[in-house]
User: Fold this.
Amino acid sequence: MGARVLSTGRPPFPRLGGVLHCGSHSLETLADDHDTPLYVYDGARALERLSAVRAAFAGVDLLVAYSIKANPNLALLKLFADAGAGADIVSGGELYCALEAGIAPGRIVFAGVGKTRTEMGYALKSGIRGFHVESSQELDALASVAGELGAQAPVAVRVNPDVDSPTHEFTRTGHAAAKFGVSPPRALELYRRIAGHAGLRAVGIDVHIGSQVRDPGPFLHALDVVLEVAGRARRETGTALEYVDLGGGFGIEDAVGGEIDLRGLGREVAARIAAAPGRAPGRPLELIVEPGRFLVGDAGVLVTRVIYVKRSGGKTFVVTDAGMTELIRPSHYGGEHAIVPVREDGHGSPRQVDIVGPVCEQGDFLARDRRLPLPRPGALLCVQQAGAYAFAMASNYNSRPRPAEVLVHGGRATLVRRRERYSDLIRGQRT
Ligand code: LLP
Assistant:
């Protein structure tokens, strides 16, 4: 775990008069107005984090491509689009959402090991900035699609740098045994093929080592590897790249650790890019970063109501109306989200509890063995760091309609996605 670095800017979701707020809106009032479970996002916080990323990489020609998978809510995408951000996408659906929100196609990069020909055609016609190619067969498919459309596809090879990143095994992507990217020698082969193909044009080089990584070390190691590959591609195939994409994965503060020292990382990255051969004399490589969680993770919370408190087998279970269907991170990745009462009433000393959902799975929990003042049924709890990979991974399992999302921005609280109804559960089905 990295050193505890204070998170950037003002703390989101302040406690005012004992009650948590988003901006000037009490989470109690929002829960009363929109029911629970409820996701609440702080737009100002998301934009503040975008500024923090830009400040950390100051001095570099930078594109921040928001990783849409973290939270594809259109209202958030629109905020980022208006602020000039780009997008990292991994599907045709994400491309559609990005374009709907007004993100400029020239700021969109497309990663993923399984892009289909249909998705490639859609992205090519849309004029995206780069296809981040992850295999030899994918390059063939892209060349063929480009040929059919009479277009030239902009390509960056995603390199697997074989670095180990200290994070959960499911969110580690930069080691050799991961399904992502290609080895440095294979990347050089691909650049050679791109150079010899009229339908392909090498524009960049790409790497992404994992998610919720707090240690800057593996990012720098990965950058060294890709800059070395870029240098060899230039010398051996005459390829002059425009950008290096360092991926996302910058770790944020949660219940167990602090956030990455992004400024420190930014300084080191800037120095390496300045020293590397650029696009042309006097024109250093452009840097793309793809943060998802860093931008929206702590800009969102999940507000949930306690249904029952139950003692059984020597344990105390706080049963809430949100569970793994609204936040799968605790059970799937061992995610440790801070969970606090929405109203602090000063009653009751902390007890060790499991906070569990209503889903019929023993693996359905929001937190285990947490110390919490024992809430009463009806009390509201606030699950923090729920702006990223929360709604995005929500499901209808147990035929549970997905919750509403509220965005607080510019003093207003807006319902940006209505709660699903039972009728949504059978939409598109027939008997
Ligand atoms: N770029 C690429 C190519 C990615 O695959 C990802 C995330 C990102 C950027 C953004 O990573 P971030 O900055 O958000 O860490 N569901 C998991 C995280 C999976 C991340 C997948 N890829 C979780 O809840 O921890």
Q: What stands out?
A: Residues 81 and 196 are 36 Å apart (CA to CA).
